[in-house]
Amino acid sequence: MTKHVYQKETTQLMQDLNTTAAGLTQAEAQQRLQEMGLNQLAEAKKKSALFLFLETFKDAMVIVLLIVAIVQMIMGAHVEALVIFAVLLLNSLVSVIQAKKAEGSLDALKKLAAPDASVLRSGQEQSIPAKEIVTGDIVILEAGDYVPADGRLLEASTLKVDEGMLTGESTPAEKEITTLSKEAPIGDRINMVFSGTIVTYGRGKFLVTATGNTTEIGQVADLLESTTEQKTPLQRGLDLFSKKLSFAILILSLVILGVQLLRIFLDGSVDVTQDILNAFMFAVAVAAIPEALQSIVTIVLSLGTKKMAKHHAIIRKLPAVETLGSTSIICTDKTGTLTQNKMTVVDHYLANGQSGEFSTDPKKWQTDEQRLIEISVLANDATISKDGTKLGDPTEIALIDFSENKNQSYQKLRKQYPREDELPFDSDRKLMSTLHTIDQQKIMVTKGGPDIVFERSTKVLRNGQIVEFTAELKNQFQKQNEVFAERALRVLAFAYKEVATDSLTLAEEEDLVLVGLLAMIDPPRAEVFQAVADANSAGIQTVMITGDHKTTAVAIAKEIGIFQPGDQALTGVELDQLSEVELAEKLAKITVYARVSPENKIRIVRAWQEKGKISAMTGDGVNDAPALKQADIGIAMGTGTDVAKDAAAMVLTDDNFASIIKAVEVGRNVFDNIKKAVAYLFAGNLGAIIAIVFALAIGWSNPFTALQLLFINLVNDSLPAIALGMEKAEPTIMKRQPRDPNSGIFTGKTLISVTYRGILIALAVITAQWLGNQQSPELGVAMAFTTLILSRTLQTFAARSNTQTSLQVGLFSNKMVLLAILVCGGLFSLTLLPGLREVFAIPSTFALKEIGLALSLATSAVLLMEITKLILVKIQEPKSEIQLTRN
Length: 887
Known about the structure:
By secondary structure, the chain is an alpha/beta fold. The protein has 33 helices and 25 strands.
């Protein structure tokens, strides 16, 4: 089997790459640069904004409406043409903006590249542009440097590298000069460094083994380029619904046009040219009915973004608002999302067996406790600045936080016992020691890995007395260390020693006096426990995907309720060993994935998608970006990388899992409101279509003019539909199972309700036209138009709920509904003004009496809608009680 770079001996790698410890010569480097290309990320050619804009007009209905608008403009119907142009332009601009935003991921990825790098060329150190680095180069690293390429370490002096962008781990990785024998995920490749990561401590030297798109970050870029964003359930549902509706309306328009043309040619006394044009424009007005739907949905989604922003969720891609409401799987990172992203001391252990709670009153501390605190803050480089900024290694910050929380000022201790000398932490020794004068005695205090400190200790502090570190005491400490490890706690041991020197040497770190252990972890957020429980009750499964170790991940998952008895946890390596069939079989029971790669994350998301589940994915690092893009909804952390944010549909400003669950609730409410708004529009349009077909069937004139229909569809109906988008959530909204993503917009009760309301509106309009026709066909049209606009507007009350009347929902619980109805009334009154009457075909004979009749008919239709709800609820109540009794 072919060995990976991290598994080969460095001498072999040198030979493979044809280089030496002195680096390449300038000529060799130039030749390789020409052969391999620059050390930068390549990308596919982007589509121009103009191309994307023109691409939005390829839809058949859009093309028809565009041609119609141009014809109207030529024929002088400027108002109708401008209305259609405005709607089409709005939809196109929104599409282009969203497409251009999606291109930002790779641009953000490129910004992570180092500008310059120090390399050895012919044994001489020189600074060159990082893009000119080639494989075989020897690169020198210092604290604060960006790593310019992937490579194998040749030297490492207390080297620590922040690899969180690739691994998701919050603590810097400690690097060593070693050769790994087994396959290892990125987070465990301690002898490697990776492009785009940052050196936080120490120095080193490495052999470049990969550049550009062959680096780990380059592979992430390739995944980003090849990953296709998923259409949301709403987009798929609306696309299907719109296609069916557009086809049906188009056929209906052609039928109506055909019938009208036949009647025109049979009646030789009319102005054939003008009437043909009128018939054509009327058919177009009917065909324009579906165009209002997309605009209203866009506006309702926009309102949802404002609601989500209040819950710390910033929406970058509009359809994501509703997608959250359909989510059935949340694949979440651990660090910072489920946990506080803050290492915290949660337990301790002393030689006398004391553990658990640590007193917050220093006056009550015994010698053992006092010495433990002293060592933890003295053998420690972390600090807190005046503005509260915490600087240093997260583990060391946790130790000074612990001291402060126990009311022992770390600054006071350091001022009282200033550092006189030190032996810095070293990844080989796994120890740090500092020298201080305590009680007129030179004392060396030491902290380090428990096993190392145990081996170097010969005595132990117990109840203030120094006693022999017997095999029994050592066994007790080792057992306690194992208990802490089972709880996935990170443990440090603390010891000290009296010395007779002013300068420390490594030889001093022997014959130590062991004091105790401090155990720490990145604890779960307090609100996460309830959030996970809420997700479970809403039928949403939570899956943890983390770069951390399996033991730590499972411990946290158990504590917060993600990992249940019978569940499984896999590492990335174990996942790679599963076939697609095996993964599909085990998927539902795997609730924790640890030490995963970017490819692993995409595979997990796709596995759930293949099962028909709507999956949300959280992440903050570069390694998360491809999976964020692949997921039905990618959720980036506010503190994460720009790469992750650009690939995501939503950004959490507080990095909190609980905010996701709140956003899911808003998403479900938004979908409910979209259904209400679309149902409102469709019921009104259905009523209009029935009235038109009825009039043509019995030989009446068209009940509406083209302008009247356009006015109602594209102007008047918008405000009530938008107001319905502001309805509050149902009390049981988070007790429902996620909706089936393949279900249509109109199903079950909604379809029945829409059809019933449409029929009632049609009956009111037909009655109104009949009453008007008793005097003249012109008055019949005015009566039909007025009744249609009033019944569709007042229908807003009935559209607020399928099961409750507007009074039961709360007449004033959504004041925007009342405002929208008032504004619509005002818009209608404008059509009665002199000058506009002629434009909207309203004769002078149309007066208060006719308005009263139209209002009575419209009100009657809406009252019947509300009364029917009450009757149906009463009929269903006994059935519900019987069902409950049986259960």
